[in-house]
């Protein structure tokens, strides 16, 4: 069943085209891994999906609503963000809020739940990521891995249809990557639909049922992990995978 | 050195300390009131107004404050007279020096404060804004709950500097007839030619006052930081 459909997404900055006619169809429960060279437009792609940046053109369909991305009303924007959450590369936890408040902020001021309800959800989510004992800690008092788990809890608490992950592990010390990867894997197993931009090819293979390779703002190739990662047909992808594995 | 004179003059100087404090504190408060809309206009780059404020700020930051004081002193009454010309009863305007002083200080402070706002605002990582928007907050809630609370502790150190500068700059307003610490020191000294002694008294007062304000504001900064960032 199609959950999210993006058609002819275009974005440019100062006349420089960054996204060139991107199309993507996502089914419920899909885990899409996005790989590709630095600067190919992966972050821009995610930010244009939840309208942190505004596309020049394109359409987005989700939950039987179709949005013309070239002009979305503020109301539709807010509506869209109740369905699409995001996890950031640098965690981007609210520095002025505790772990607990990081989770409740969106629930109270975004989804307009009452405080009690929000608190209940936040505690559940904190338990999920094993961080309940840190609920009153501020981001500056948490390790990168702990911050990212809060970042994930903040997104899942919103019960979004889709979660966008922008290189969720790339700012982490190597020994902290594991727990965050496990949390995301667990989410995937629970049937959460997500798009995950990552440089970790093994991670992509582990969680994704579909991999897309981005280059120069276009989807150069899309397919199963076996097709794209294990048996890449395209020379560009082969080269990229070689380079990435050499870095390790 | 006439120590006796120093001791005797001290209370007389302290008696005008409220003028110094009033002028700088009221100046900085009106400066803040002006700086907030100026900062918003410049940050949003609202056409025409933003450019005007850019010029305004570089003017005020580029001209010695004594010149600003004189311009307001001679210019403001003239300007009000011109604006009021249609009014049949209009006469020449005379204005209390204190008002002139406050206007000059408020204008000067507003330019510096809006620069301080700007750097405090840019000190808040853009991803904080993105994250708040991404969890469904409106722009205004994002500012209220995330951006502004983080901007304030960034702002206080610069605010402190601006306030201390204003306090020190009040030493110039005796030029337009306001008797504050410096004016009083001049008056007291001129009777007996004990200039050094009078200025040493003034020095002590400025030092103590600036120290107290700086300490209070840094206390406030720490309190807020504790509250905001733990
Ligand atoms: N706000 C912006 N203004 C102008 N150019 C931008 C902006 N954001 C991104 N770009 C440009 O868009 C291109 C794609 O950037 P993007 O961050 O999406 O790449 P990426 O694939 O996420 O790279 P990385 O793997 O390094 O994170 C880059 O050339 C970048 O310079
Ligand atoms: Mg990126």
Automatic annotation (TrEMBL), chain A:
<dbReference type="InterPro" id="IPR050086">
    <property type="entry name" value="MetN_ABC_transporter-like"/>
</dbReference>
<dbReference type="InterPro" id="IPR003593">
    <property type="entry name" value="AAA+_ATPase"/>
</dbReference>
<keyword id="KW-0067">ATP-binding</keyword>
<dbReference type="GO" id="GO:0005524">
    <property type="term" value="F:ATP binding"/>
</dbReference>
<dbReference type="Pfam" id="PF00005">
    <property type="entry name" value="ABC_tran"/>
</dbReference>
<keyword id="KW-1003">Cell membrane</keyword>
<feature type="domain" description="ABC transporter">
    <location>
        <begin position="4"/>
        <end position="241"/>
    </location>
</feature>
<dbReference type="InterPro" id="IPR030679">
    <property type="entry name" value="ABC_ATPase_HisP-typ"/>
</dbReference>
<keyword id="KW-0813">Transport</keyword>
<keyword id="KW-0547">Nucleotide-binding</keyword>
<keyword id="KW-0472">Membrane</keyword>
<dbReference type="InterPro" id="IPR003439">
    <property type="entry name" value="ABC_transporter-like_ATP-bd"/>
</dbReference>
<dbReference type="InterPro" id="IPR027417">
    <property type="entry name" value="P-loop_NTPase"/>
</dbReference>
<protein>
    <submittedName>
        <fullName>Amino acid ABC transporter ATP-binding protein</fullName>
    </submittedName>
</protein>
<dbReference type="InterPro" id="IPR017871">
    <property type="entry name" value="ABC_transporter-like_CS"/>
</dbReference>
From TrEMBL, chain B:
<feature type="transmembrane region" description="Helical">
    <location>
        <begin position="199"/>
        <end position="220"/>
    </location>
</feature>
<feature type="transmembrane region" description="Helical">
    <location>
        <begin position="93"/>
        <end position="111"/>
    </location>
</feature>
<dbReference type="InterPro" id="IPR043429">
    <property type="entry name" value="ArtM/GltK/GlnP/TcyL/YhdX-like"/>
</dbReference>
<protein>
    <submittedName>
        <fullName>Amino acid ABC transporter permease</fullName>
    </submittedName>
</protein>
<feature type="transmembrane region" description="Helical">
    <location>
        <begin position="53"/>
        <end position="73"/>
    </location>
</feature>
<feature type="domain" description="ABC transmembrane type-1">
    <location>
        <begin position="17"/>
        <end position="217"/>
    </location>
</feature>
<keyword id="KW-0813">Transport</keyword>
<dbReference type="Pfam" id="PF00528">
    <property type="entry name" value="BPD_transp_1"/>
</dbReference>
<keyword id="KW-1133">Transmembrane helix</keyword>
<comment type="similarity">
    <text>Belongs to the binding-protein-dependent transport system permease family.</text>
</comment>
<feature type="transmembrane region" description="Helical">
    <location>
        <begin position="20"/>
        <end position="41"/>
    </location>
</feature>
<keyword id="KW-1003">Cell membrane</keyword>
<dbReference type="InterPro" id="IPR035906">
    <property type="entry name" value="MetI-like_sf"/>
</dbReference>
<keyword id="KW-0472">Membrane</keyword>
<dbReference type="InterPro" id="IPR010065">
    <property type="entry name" value="AA_ABC_transptr_permease_3TM"/>
</dbReference>
<dbReference type="InterPro" id="IPR000515">
    <property type="entry name" value="MetI-like"/>
</dbReference>
<feature type="transmembrane region" description="Helical">
    <location>
        <begin position="172"/>
        <end position="193"/>
    </location>
</feature>
<keyword id="KW-0029">Amino-acid transport</keyword>
<keyword id="KW-0812">Transmembrane</keyword>
């Amino acid at each position: 069943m199609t959950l999210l459909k993006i058609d002819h997404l275009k974005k440019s900055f100062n006349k420089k085209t960054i996204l060139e006619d991107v199309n993507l169809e996502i089914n419920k429960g899909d885990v899409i891994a996005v790989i590709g060279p630095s600067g190919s437009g992966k972050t821009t792609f995610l930010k244009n999906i939840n309208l942190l940046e505004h596309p020049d053109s394109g359409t987005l369909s989700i939950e039987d609503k179709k949005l013309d991305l070239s002009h979305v009303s503020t109301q539709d924007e807010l509506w869209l963000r109740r369905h699409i959450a995001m996890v950031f590369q640098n965690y981007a936890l609210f520095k002025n809020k505790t772990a607990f408040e990081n989770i409740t902020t969106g629930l109270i001021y975004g989804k307009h739940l009452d405080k009690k309800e929000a608190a209940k959800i936040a505690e559940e989510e904190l338990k999920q990521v094993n961080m309940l004992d840190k609920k009153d800690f501020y981001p500056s008092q948490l390790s990168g891995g702990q911050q990212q788990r809060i970042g994930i809890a903040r997104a899942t608490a919103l019960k979004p249809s889709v979660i966008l992950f922008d290189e969720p592990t790339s700012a982490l010390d190597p020994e902290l990557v594991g727990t965050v990867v496990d949390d995301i894997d667990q989410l995937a197993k629970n049937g959460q639909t997500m798009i995950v931009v990552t440089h970790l090819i093994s991670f992509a293979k582990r969680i994704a049922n579909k991999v897309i390779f981005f280059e120069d703002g276009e989807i150069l190739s899309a397919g199963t992990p076996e097709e794209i990662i294990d048996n890449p047909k395209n020379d560009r992808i082969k080269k990229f995978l070689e380079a990435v594995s050499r870095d390790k | 050195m006439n120590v006796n004179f120093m001791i005797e003059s001290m209370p007389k100087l302290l008696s005008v300390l409220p003028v110094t404090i009033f002028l700088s504190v009221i100046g900085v408060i009106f400066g803040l009131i002006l700086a907030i809309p100026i900062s918003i206009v410049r940050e949003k780059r609202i056409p025409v107004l933003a450019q005007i404020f850019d010029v305004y700020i570089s003017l005020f930051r580029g001209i010695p404050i004594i010149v600003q004081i004189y311009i307001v002193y001679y210019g403001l009454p003239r300007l009000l007279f011109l604006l009021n010309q249609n009014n049949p009863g209009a006469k020449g305007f005379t204005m209390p020096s204190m008002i002139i002083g406050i206007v000059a200080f408020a204008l000067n402070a507003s330019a510096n404060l809006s620069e301080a706002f700007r750097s405090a605002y840019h000190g808040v990582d853009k991803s904080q804004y993105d994250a708040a928007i991404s969890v469904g907050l409106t722009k205004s809630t994002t500012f209220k709950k995330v951006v502004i609370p983080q901007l304030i502790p960034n702002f206080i150190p610069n605010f402190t500097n601006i306030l201390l500068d204003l306090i020190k700059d009040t030493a110039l307003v005796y030029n337009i007839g306001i008797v504050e610490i410096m004016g009083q020191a001049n008056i007291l000294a001129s009777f007996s030619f004990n200039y050094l002694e009078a200025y040493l008294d003034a020095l002590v007062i400025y030092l103590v006052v600036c120290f107290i304000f700086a300490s209070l504001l840094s206390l406030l900064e720490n309190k807020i930081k504790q509250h905001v960032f733990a």
